[in-house]
Structure formats: C-alpha cells, structure tokens
Amino acid sequence: MTEPGRTTGASGADREEGARGRRRVPLLLAVAGAAYLLDLGSKLAVVAELENGAPVQVLGDWLELRVLRNSGAAFGIGEATTIVFTVIAVAVAVVIFRLARKLYSTPWAIALGLLLGGGLGNLTDRLFRAPGDFQGAVVDFIHVRGFSVMNVADCAIVCGGVLIVLFSFLGWEMDNRDKPEGEGRAGPEGGGEGKAGEAAVTGPPVAS
C-alpha cells in the first residue's frame, strides 16, 4: 500500500535512460576486445611464421603477407615521431572512455569500439616491442600493392574513423537524444500552441 504523499514509478533519470535505451558500453568493450585480440593474435602468428621468410601471396602480387616493423603511425606515416603517436593513442583511449558515460547508440558503440581496439592494439606494440620506452615498432604485415603495408589495428582505426565521420554527417547522436517534435516547426503541429499563447497575451485586435 502506498503511503499518502508518496508517488511510485521510475525517477526522472530512469525515465530518461529508458527513453534512450540502455548504455552501449558493453557493446563498445566487446567490439574493442574483438578488434584487439584479432590484431594481437595475427601479429603473434605472422611474427612467428613469416618475419624471416619470403612474402606469402594471397591474391597474386596484389595482396601479400610480409612482416615489416613500423615506428610511425598507420601506413608508415611519421616514423621519426613514434612517441608522439603513443601519446595520441593514450589520449584517444581516455577520451573514448569518458564518452562512454553518454553512449546509448549502437552504431556509435561499434565505431568507437573499432577505434579503441585498434588504438590499443598498436599501443601494445609501442609499449612492449623493441626498442621499448614508448617507441616500440608496430608490426605491419598486410601489403597491398601500390598502397601500403598495414595491420588489423590500422584497418579497425580507419573503419572506426570513417564511421564516426559518417554518423556525424548524418546527424546521429551518440546519446540517442532526439529533438522535440514541435521544435522549430510552424503551423498547427509545431507553432500553433505558441501562437495561441501569443494571442492570449496580446489580446484581440482593437477596431479603429
């Protein structure tokens, strides 16, 4: 039995979360974990089997597996500034974890998960591979003819970045918050109530 003066039901925060859906942090972590483990496993395999051997042709000479150590960013960019990219990777991971507090969108969770997993994959190389001290060389092994040599982490980072740009262009919100239906609209559906209130304040027109 409900006591007088006490109401039942969800709080305002609970109702707001119910309207948006549940936070997608578990999905973000699952995608990041899958990307990270796939990157780590592939690097361990190719280093053990291919680093000192001949390239393995997958699609003729258009796509090969060959191990290269890259001290720069994705696709061999900026090899002289390894520690800078290490700091950037750490900063990106921190930002993503902070954004996770308001993450209710499934597409955004997938995009940020790819970005986080790929970033952590290459960050692991920089921390634990030679020469160490945040300057470790990243293992690249996917060679596309006329393009570059990359790894699974690079692919995840690029895919995540492309999705983020696409979702931003489409106006998809990370927190699934929609604008009120009547906002910015004129006519009976959007602006009728506002006009009625204005008429009530100003009163009827006076005949001259």
Report on the architecture of this protein.
By secondary structure, this protein is an alpha+beta fold. It is built from six helices and four strands; from the N terminus they run ααββααββαα. It has helices at 12-20, 25-50, 82-99, 106-128, 152-170, 192-202, and strands at 56-59, 63-70, 138-144, 148-150. The chain has a four-stranded antiparallel beta sheet with strand order 1-2-3-4. Strand 1 (56-59) and strand 2 form a beta hairpin. Helix 3 packs antiparallel against helix 4 and helix 4 runs antiparallel to helix 5 (152-170). The longest helix is centred in the N-terminal third of the chain and has 26 residues, at 25-50. It is globular, with a radius of gyration of 26 Å. The chain starts with 11 loop residues before the first helix and ends in a 6-residue tail after the last helix.
